Structures are given as C-alpha cells and as structure tokens.
Amino acid sequence: MKKAIKKTSKYNLHDDDEPLSVVEEPALKYETLNVILGGRHSAKKSISGDFDLIKLTREGVKKSTLKTLASFLGITMETMSGLLHTSYRNIQRKDEDSLLDTLKTERVLELASFTQRGIEVIGSKDAFAEWIQSPLIALGNKKPLDFLDTSFGIQFLIKILGRLEQGVFS
Fold this sequence. Notes:
By secondary structure, the chain is mainly α. The protein has helices at 28-36, 50-59, 64-73, 77-83, 88-93, 102-122, 125-132, 151-166. The protein has one domain (28-166). Helix 2 crosses helix 6 and helix 3 (64-73) packs parallel to helix 6 (102-122). The termini are far apart.
C-alpha cells in the first residue's frame, strides 16, 4: 500500500491538505508593500490581501505614507505631488495623519505596488531608485520616472520590468 505524501507549497500557509482558495493569499506578497507604505502607521492594520487594498483605497492612506514612498522611489515630495496631479502646497497643508482622497490613495497604492515589483526585479531599493532616474532605450531615452504619472505608464513599466526579469533586452 502506498503511503500518502502530503504535498506542501511555500504558499500553502495552512496545516491541512486544502490548497489556498482564490481569496486567501500569501501574506508574504504584501509584507514588502506594508513596508513601502510605512508599515501600520499608514493604515489602521497591515495589508494582507487584495480586499485590504480595496478597503484602504476607499478609506484613504495617511499623508505620512507619501514620504516613505518618495524615499523608496528616490524622489522629492515636489516630484511626488506631481505624480499625484496635485500641487506641492496642497500636500504641505495637510497634517501628517490626514487621509488622502480615494483617487490619490489609489495612485499611491499603485505606485507602491510598482515600487515593490521594481525592487524585486532590480534587486535593491537603491538600485531601483537609480533605475527610475536612468534614461532607457525602451522608453525613447526617457526615464521611467517620466511615466509614473499615469496608470498606463505604470503598467507599461511593469511590462518592462517583466522583460528585464526574463532577460529580454529592452
């Protein structure tokens, strides 16, 4: 009689044989994202799944999150305000604990997810910040930073990161 072998996956965080459902996602995926957003200080609790991202988008992130994200991107708060399509003065007026509106929060979360992916592919926070500022042939000798002000630009850069990860020249 064959002995049943229990299959485990690095993503199966349960003790039973049940695979993860679509809704249950590995917490490790969001660990770096929490750090990029300033930890629990940016939200009431840590982000552990897509439902948390949706909820956080609706509630808003704190202004203090912007400084942490700007640090990871290697940009100034003036540049960050441009990526959010608002004036630097409007950002300055807010208290550190003030919540950003839904549209700005969504952009911040999108930028944070992109930053997480970039750090994974490029290898470090500093190397990623340098990559953001470097002109790329694939971008017509423009910097990736020049494309971070739109969702389509961010998606385009994610595709370029995917090519880099696969070793495709771009």
